[in-house]
């Protein structure tokens, strides 16, 4: 499919995570090359002028993220139609003519705002976006044992678990991580994105027909360039409707609701917001605390049957309108519950990889303890560690979890700072931290962390 404003360049080598297929997008030089309808762009331009009062050509190019030739086409049409007028030359930096709306133009802008409250950069057409998602897929199969070892250097994991994670990432299938609380499931899941360090293009918004859906979210998408120091003029280089970003990671837990997984329309602002999985496209979507959401686990899991099997997601825009988009992300379910409590075996087979995170061995616990005391600048004391394991964990029958060394040592240091003391930690300080860390019912500590 030959789409406007898109041109591929040759693939780079695939020996390292940052050397995958490169995708170049050129700046459209005409209205036709934007892939958008002229009425949509005219409405958007009028809304910007209505919002600002008056704008010169440089500010319009910046606001709309469009090149000068495209803007010239739109302005020429609006002047001929009597919707805008030239207010004079801008004497400030950049110069250029300054434009404002006529009475006819203000009426058209109000009509446009009644249909859509979106006032932002010109959107990227959904047909182009489909091709873009496929071109910069996260399922490029470039994860190998060496890359896993580098990404998780210093992280303590059970033998074989690192290779299981690597194979699961290359499979293109969903992953379920399960095990007791505090065993590092969320921590390890969130670090998997380290293996995909190449930058990708994220549209600021996409157009599905005449509906504009905001995609870029600064809370999710981290810019890979310096937005305050652009290296290209707006009328040259790449398509400014797209931003260069790191691959996204979306992590959601018990607060997740079903409406967040579909396009949301706000009737007050008259704007559409992208669902979470669309914001996570070409990245990772981690559903943490699976089974703690307000909806039944089966309802949430059933939402993913079609995307997991067909690699397509069908989004509902309301009014009987639907849109099909590639489902290109690594979907991770993380839970403290037994997976069989969440779904039957027939459904779990669709997920593919089920990875069990368990409590630590004594040697693994010691390795993490050594890492934590080094971070705190505390000398390693084997007798103190022995006291924590044999004098606290074992009598209370509390399994060894990866979070315990960091939390117990940190609380003991908190007490030292409060009392104005310093130096090596004592067994009494660790015991104090222990009794403040675990929930106590009837005088007995409970084995699970809060």
From TrEMBL:
Residues 10-29 are annotated as: Disordered. Residues 171-357 form the AAA+ ATPase domain. Residues 19-29 have a biased composition (Polar residues). SMART domains: AAA. This is AAA+ ATPase domain-containing protein. It comes from Pseudomonas linyingensis. The lineage of its organism: Bacteria, Pseudomonadati, Pseudomonadota, Gammaproteobacteria, Pseudomonadales.
